[in-house]
């Protein structure tokens, strides 16, 4: 991977989107999972666009928080990783249980876990020694 932190983080974010899209497509077409969630009193389908959008928002929010933390502390990665793990755990508590049916719940859990782990492991790598803030 590149030594340029901007390109490396962009690649991590793009990788998370690609993995989410691949999982969604495979589970939908091969396993026949009809992904839908309950929201309030209604049920709505989860589309490929929603998967791409949610993953992109999560990646950009994580990246932005990490960049902001780098401006204020030398322990940015410790703080960021802690926040990211809490956000992942909260997403697992809120997201997958809203799925309609066991297959949808399992698929949502897989999507949340895979995207979260890719972002946590990929974005949390510290900057090389000597890198400027």
Explain this structure.
The protein has 133 residues and is mainly α. The chain has one domain (5-123). Helices cover 68% and strands 6% of the residues. The chain has four helices and two strands, in the order αββααα. Strands 1-2 form a two-stranded antiparallel ribbon. Helix 1 packs antiparallel against helix 2, helix 2 runs antiparallel to helix 3 and helix 3 runs antiparallel to helix 4. The longest helix is centred in the first third of the chain and has 25 residues, at 5-29.
Shape: elongated
Distance between the termini: 21 Å
Give the H and E element order.
HEEHHH
Please count the helical segments. Answer: 4
Q: How many structural domains in the coordinates?
A: 1
Q: What is the radius of gyration?
A: 16 Å
Major sheet: size, sense and barrel closure? 2 strands, antiparallel
Contiguous uncertain segments of 5+ residues: none
SS-based class:
mainly alpha
Strand order of the largest sheet: 1-2
Q: How many DSSP-defined strands?
A: 2
Q: Portion of residues in helices?
A: 55-70%
What do the pLDDT scores average to?
Answer: 90
Q: β content, as a range?
A: 5-15%
């Amino acid at each position: 991977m590149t030594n340029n932190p901007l390109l490396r983080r962009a690649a991590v974010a793009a990788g998370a989107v690609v993995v989410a899209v691949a999982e969604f497509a495979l589970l939908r077409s091969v396993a026949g999972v009809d992904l839908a969630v309950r929201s309030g009193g209604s049920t709505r389908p989860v589309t490929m666009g929603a998967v791409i959008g949610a993953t992109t928002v999560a990646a950009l929010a994580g990246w932005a928080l990490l960049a902001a933390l780098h401006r204020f502390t030398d322990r940015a990665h410790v703080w960021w990783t802690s926040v990211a793990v809490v956000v992942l755990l909260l997403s697992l508590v809120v997201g997958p249980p809203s799925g309609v049916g066991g297959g949808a719940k399992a698929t949502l859990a897989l999507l949340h876990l895979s995207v979260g782990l890719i972002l946590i492991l990929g974005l949390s790598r510290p900057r090389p020694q000597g890198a400027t803030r």
